[in-house]
Amino acid sequence: MDNYEELLAKLLEKLAATNQGQTTISSSNPKIPVGISNRHIHLSQKDIDKLFGYGYQLTKLKDLSQPGQYACKETLMICGPKGVIEKVRILGPARKQTQVEILQSDSFKLGVKAPLRLSGDLVGSGSVTLIGPKGSAEISEGVVVAKRHIHMLPEEAVLFGVRDGEAVTVEILGERGGSLSNVVIRAVENSGLECHIDTEEANALGITPNMEIVIKKNNI
Amino acid sequence: MDNYEELLAKLLEKLAATNQGQTTISSSNPKIPVGISNRHIHLSQKDIDKLFGYGYQLTKLKDLSQPGQYACKETLMICGPKGVIEKVRILGPARKQTQVEILQSDSFKLGVKAPLRLSGDLVGSGSVTLIGPKGSAEISEGVVVAKRHIHMLPEEAVLFGVRDGEAVTVEILGERGGSLSNVVIRAVENSGLECHIDTEEANALGITPNMEIVIKKNNI
């Protein structure tokens, strides 16, 4: 009898250890739409003035999934010491600080630093020169590779069992599937449920715009 | 006593179910060097003749990690209906059939199909035109996105507990880490141990040339 109890205790211990750090994917987990971003630019009004002329207003081309955000008709050229990238889309509306979101491969092509950052976290980030139809703007700070994240409402965070700022792992099925860890939850009011990744992340894992992903609760 | 045995049986069953499909990463797992490939071209002698002139021999620039393979001095332009990509490196020696390995993003830029394939598996793959210094070659079949794979010797496969042709998942640590499933084991003689991925896969997961990856035995 004692032996059984000892064995049971050991088995339970093993079970606990096995479950720790293990991925628990429930088929009932709600799926999350994916938004795939190519390189793009958010501008301050001061830089809009420099690049397009004083008081210029950006022209909305189409609304994006996040409320109030839109793609603009206007594009710019990004220049770095090693190369240029033409026709990079501007997203509106104007922001407090200019933010240039590029791909990791763009940073090699341009020859600039682009740390992995969440939107708005720009201290010590990279530098480029933007060329517009009416002038250029040297951006001393604001060049980043966007850190993958999931937008959701606070009440959706409760549903998913996650917290604002938490890092989760998402699973991607398919022939080129796998998982992405350190996907940051951004649970604030006025959000549209969407997992934001860039085109390199999408291509590497075979993710297409109509796919949905699943949160694994534990980060790897 | 019967109750204990029943409980034990259930626990063992649960343990087995829990372990099934679970990642088992041992810290003692041998690490595997990573080789990151950008877009590149393998040419048949017939296409070398067309592009560089009859009987032309490619010029070795540097040896690659796989024995007998080398990067050449020569580059070509790849043309598709939607765009061109200049200065694409040729890898030698000449092969039986021309094979153009591009990135998923290149396939959009060129406007061509590029299925995910292992080297040599070219039936029904994509088509482009190559432009060289002495002529062009229309490649009716041979354009692919390289399927990630791990080269190793048969005796290394035994060490890793994998088989030639098996698909495994590899784990990548770091801020942009995660896992890649369906990485095919290629265990043949005269191989150098290396996991081959392309630059989009490397960038998406923060993989740099000096990194090593670990096989998770179970494919997700």
Could you please describe the fold and organization of this structure?
2 copies of one chain form a homodimer. The first copy, chain A, has 5 helices and 14 strands. With 220 residues, chain A is α/β, with parallel strands linked by helices. In chain A, the strands form 2 sheets. The first copy, chain A, has a 6-stranded mixed β-barrel with strand order 1-13-10-12-11-14. Residues 15-27 of chain A have low confidence and may be disordered. Chain A has 2 domains: 4-30 and 148-218, Barwin-like endoglucanases, CATH 2.40.40; 38-146, no CATH class. The longest helix of chain A is centred in the first third of the chain and has 18 residues, at 2-19. In chain A, strand 4 and strand 5 form a beta hairpin. Chain A binds chain B through residues 1, 4, 7-8, 11-12, 14-15, 18-19, 22-23, 103-105, 116, 169, 171, 175-182, 198-201, 203-206, 220, and chain B through 1, 4, 7-8, 11-12, 14-15, 18-19, 22-23, 103-105, 116, 169, 171, 175-182, 198-201, 203-206, 220. Chains A, B: Belongs to the PduL family. Chains A, B: It is an enzyme of class 2 (transferase). Chains A, B: It catalyses: propanoyl-CoA + phosphate = propanoyl phosphate + CoA. Chains A, B: Involved in 1,2-propanediol (1,2-PD) degradation by catalyzing the conversion of propanoyl-CoA to propanoyl-phosphate. Chains A, B: This is Phosphate propanoyltransferase.
